[in-house]
Amino acid sequence: MVLYDRFGRPLLHLRITVTHRCNYKCIYCHMEGEGGFSSLELTPQEIYYVAKAAYNLDIRRFKLTGGEPLVRDDIVEIVSKIASLKPLDLAITTNGYYLVDYANDLVKAGLKRVNINLPALDHEVYKAITGVDGLDRVLEGIEKARRAGLNPIKLNYVYLKGVNEGELWRILNYTKEKGLILQVIELEPVGIPEKTFKQLYKSVNDIEKEFSRRAVKTIRRKYMHYRPQYHLPDGSIVEIVKSHCNPQFCKHCTRLRLTANGSFRTCLLRDKPYINITSILRNKSLSEEEIVEKIKEVIVRANILREPYYR
Ligand code: SAM
C-alpha cells in the first residue's frame, strides 16, 4: 500500500546519492543539498537493502545521482541489484563523461533511462560551467546511450543568467535531431553561495511562456512535481523544471532521498531531518530480513516528516 504523508502526497520515488565524488566542478552544483563532502559511501548491498525496503512499501521508482554516480567503479553492480527488484523505473542522472565506457553494461544490468547534464554545446561555455573540457566525450556518450537503448534520454540544461542563455535554442535543435527530451531547469539556491545564486539566477518564466505558446500539446507530469511537458510542432519535447518559490512543485513532490552517507532526507531544500540508518545497515547481528524490516520502519517515520517547503 502506497504511503501518503500528512499533506496527502504519495511517496513513490527514492532518489539515491551514491557518492559525493565528482570529476566535474559545475559552478552551480547543489550537491543534492547534502552540504559538505563526505567520503563515506554505502556498499551496493547496503543500497540494495534500502531499495528493497522502499520497494516493499510501494516506492518503486529509483533515481541514482551524486556527485557523479559513474565515478563509482561498482555502479553496474548497484544498478543490477536494484534492477533485480523489478522496479517501475530505474534511472541515473550523470554528467555523461563516463557513459562511453558504461552505457552498454548499465543497460544489460537493467538501467532504463538516463538524464545527462548538458549546460552548453559551445566548447568554451561548457568548460567555463563544468570546469572540464569534456563536451566531445559527453556527446559521444549520448550516442552510445542511444544505441544501447536507454529511453527516454533527457538533457538537463540549468539556465544560467549571462552564461548559457544563448545555448538554449542550439540544445533544443540538438535534442530534436537526436530524439531526446530537453529539461530546462531553473537554478535553485542550494549548495551555492547567495552571491553566486544572485549572479546566475534568471527565472525560466519567459522561456516557459514561449514554449507554452508554441506547443501543440501540453502534458502535466502528475507524479513529477506536476511539471509541464511541451510538445512542439517540429516534434521536439521540452520539460520545465521550476522549483524555486513554486508551491505547485512542492505540492506534487513524491520523493524521499537517501544521502551518500546513509541518511534519509525528506526535501532538497531542508537541512533537517537527516535520519541516519548506517547503524542498522552495518549491524552484523541482524539478518537481511531484519535489516529490511527496520529500514521500512524508518521510511514510515521519515514519510510522516515530509512537508512541502513552499506552500
Ligand atoms: N553529476 C551528475 C550530473 O551532473 O547530473 C549528478 C548530480 S547533479 C547534482 C544532478 C542534477 O542536478 C544535474 O544534472 C543538474 O541538472 C541539477 N542541478 C545541479 N545543481 C543545480 C542547481 N543549483 N539548481 C538546479 N539544478 C541543479
Task: Compose a concise summary of this entry.
By secondary structure, the chain is of the alpha/beta class. It has helices at residues 44-56, 75-83, 99-109, 123-130, 135-148, 168-178, 194-200, 205-214, 247-251, 278-281, 288-304, and strands spanning 13-17, 61-65, 89-94, 113-117, 153-159, 181-186, 217-221, 227-231, 237-241, 255-258, 263-265, 274-276.
Characterization of this structure:
With about 300 residues, the protein is an alpha/beta fold. It has one domain: TIM Barrel (Alpha-Beta Barrel). It has helices at about 45-55, 75-85, 100-110, 125-130, 135-150, 170-180, 195-200, 205-215, 245-250, 280, 290-305; strands at about 15, 60-65, 90-95, 115, 155-160, 180-185, 215-220, 225-230, 235-240, 255-260, 265, 275. It has a twelve-stranded mixed β-sheet with strand order 7-8-9-6-5-4-3-2-1-10-11-12, covered by helices on one side. Strand 11 and strand 12 form a beta hairpin. Helix 1 (about 45-55) runs parallel beside helix 2, helix 1 (about 45-55) packs across helix 11 and helix 2 (about 75-85) runs parallel beside helix 3. The longest helix is centred in the last third of the chain and has 17 residues, at about 290-305. It is globular and about 55 Å long. The chain binds S-adenosylmethionine. S-adenosylmethionine binds near residues 30 and 158. S-adenosylmethionine binds near residues 31, 66, 93 and 190.
The overall number of domains is 1
| General form | globular
* Helical content (DSSP H or I, runs of 4+): 25-40%
Number of helices: 11
Order of helices and strands: EHEHEHEHHEHEHHEEEHEEEHH
How are the strands of the biggest sheet laid out side by side?
7-8-9-6-5-4-3-2-1-10-11-12
* Regions with little confidence, pLDDT below 50 for 5+ residues: none
How big a fraction of the residues is strand?
A: 15-25%
Number of strands: 12
Look at the helices and sheets and give the structural class.
alpha/beta
Largest sheet: 12 strands, mixed
Spell out the CATH superfamily.
Answer: Aldolase class I
The CATH architecture would be Alpha-Beta Barrel
